Amino acid sequence: MPIRVVPGGRIRYFRRMEPVDHPIESGETCDAKQGNPRFVVTPVDPDLLPDGTSKPWPMRRRIVGWLIGWLFGRRRPRGKVPIDELQRVLLIRTDRLGDGVISTPVIAALDQLTQAYGGQINIDLLGSRHNAPLFAADRRVDTTFRWDLPIRDRLANLRACRSRRHDLVLQLNLSRTTNLTILARLLAPNGHIVGRGHTYNSRLFDVVAPQSPHPHFIDQTYDILLHAIDWKEPPPPRPAPAIALPERMIEETDVLLKAAGLTVADRPLLLVNLSAGAIDRSFGIERATTMVDQLAQLAVEKGWEIALSGGPDEQEKCAAISERTGLPLLRFPSILHLGCAIERASLLVTPDTGPVHLASAVGTETIAYYAEFDKPAGWGPLHGTTVVTETDGDVNGVDIEEIIKAAARSVEKQARSGG
Asked: Is 116 exposed, middle or buried (0-12, 13-18, 19+ CB in 10 A)?
């Protein structure tokens, strides 16, 4: 069985590849070329041994870990929080947009507990500029605090957060957990701290969530909640991800779409996102233009509308592709307006980036293409198809024909179902 080490976002994974002969299911990934061997790709944390225990660290890091535990750790971990004592919860999610979206099932489950037990669980969130707007618009979240602010504003935010006296802190970041767990301990000195750690920072937690058996990070994140609470009954299954789209923003987005010449409700919309948070995840101008031209031809043949979108960091590239193809380029004033447009679309084509998860949250079918073999297993769309590069680490190894074929299949399927 081949074992390779490849970069996988902010942490590294071992990729265990096992040939399979069944159709590829959600959460699996495969070679982009049809007819080639298919593989199940299982991401494994390289800091853990097969039995789930941590690998030995160098002596220097072990000493640092011991000092951190001695300074900030709890002498006697408090264990899981009793469900009937849960009143104030702080979620820490200081990373990217997609990470925020995959945390929304945790919010939904906590909201369901409020309704089931007749009490009131106040949910606060410490986020980043990438995901805080999502949570600020969510009625289920009482207060959203920003971490990535200038130092004076950050300290004021943290003081306000500490004053909330949380009973439970869920440290939902899945990598680089030590500093954020120290922060959690300072923000809620009397609260239960739960997250995914390892042997050398385990004293910072009241409960260390074990390595999840699930490949997708939405399930790994939800597992942290399952290990945080002393459930009286079987815990709820993971809710679907969902984001709040304010009615005002939906109306503003409809105006924007109509100004671009789109009918909004009369014909299905194919939305093509051209950019990604990391520039090496999306096509350059030439390949993106080739893909868009073929998608536009498909849209015309099937009576669909088509429009382009892109992030602020790649507006020059997106504008050039829009000019070459003659298709409208939509510019959205906020990430929630983009979410509204994705919700209006019948199909989204996008590289590996935040809109994949926005589409999962609003139920829009997605064709997402990936520059790394192992990414779809953890970050794939919940509704749709993944197309994976043939050359690991190179987005130009993605076969454009496979994207077009997947789009054609989706269009045909929606036509048959009346979508």
From this structure: exposed
